[in-house]
Amino acid sequence: xxxxxxxxxxxxxxxxxxxxxxxxxxxxxxxxVGTRLHELAGWAAAxxxxxxxxxxxxxxxxxxxxxxxxxxxGFPAAVFFPTGTMAQQVVLRCWAGRTGSPVVxxxxxxxxxVHEGGALGAVSGLRTVHPTDESRLPTADEVRGHPERFGTLxxxxxxxxxxxxxxxxxxxxxxxxxxxxxxxxxxxxGARLWETGTxxxxxxxxxxQLADSVYVSFYKSLGGMSGAAVAGPEDLVEEARVWRHRxxxxxxxxxxxxxxxxxxxxxxxPRLPSYVAHARVVAQALREGFAEAGAGWFxxxxxxxxxxxxxxxxxxxxxxxxxxxxxxxxETGTVLFRRWFPGPAxxxxxxxxxxxxxxxxxxxxxxEEVKEAVRGFLARVx
Length: 382
Prior knowledge:
With 382 residues, the chain is of the alpha/beta class. The protein is built from 15 helices and 13 strands.
């Protein structure tokens, strides 16, 4: 019964988010099967790929996507994976074989540590160490001073669970140099690398070129159905193809996912800088809206977003805040926030957090409209 109630609550939220006419962002999970397939088919019919043959076991359209990713990121080659978890398992395993070290240095809030069930150790025989436990990526001094040898330094750009935070450009260059001084290779978990260019003042290609290999996602920022890619040297990519098969990732056909990824590269990638710029407008309006409404303690983190995503913290139970978010959507047709969760580990007790994203629909919101939505949300919290 409890599971059934959870499913009903999830369907209710999804319907409210989907049907609300005013939203700050859309996600790949919004919409219905019919509408999503119709949109993708319409784009495909007008695209250069409409007459391409269907792919089988990674050829055809999947190969075209791999070539496109390699060009975008400035690497000799790239390989498609059905999931990012598999992609990083494979590339980190390949680097371990080359460096002779199964040790991967990463942040304790990095995706493999928090969201993958310990797969790096359980499946791939790798071991992780943490140069820092601060809510930011490690500094060059922390990388140089770590007492244990590691073969690969993995940097998640941005570090999502710390608030989608990034170092500045010089700090990133110094960290990469520090790893190479220790004869380690550098891998970027770039699931959201596409939108880091505004913060760094550089194109994604220049960011990616700091690393020896990069993983990117197609659904997190580009609006694709699923899928990921690893870009790097040709010999690494060819070995990764072998391991992709061994890990069960050599799917018979993947053209819908590949098509949606190509669409994202064509349509969403050029718009990401405008999303980042407007996220800063929204974050400022949220801070002003909470203060003007007498909300008491709150936090928008980072105060100036590094990408088009950031966190908001409030001192209430997450269930209370999720219910208020849902009520605002159902009663006014406005989606300001979505689900709320317990605050970050080690943070202030009794605080809940949510993630805010700004995409195409959010560009239409003025600062005053954000403040109006804050007032409506807080009224429903009360």
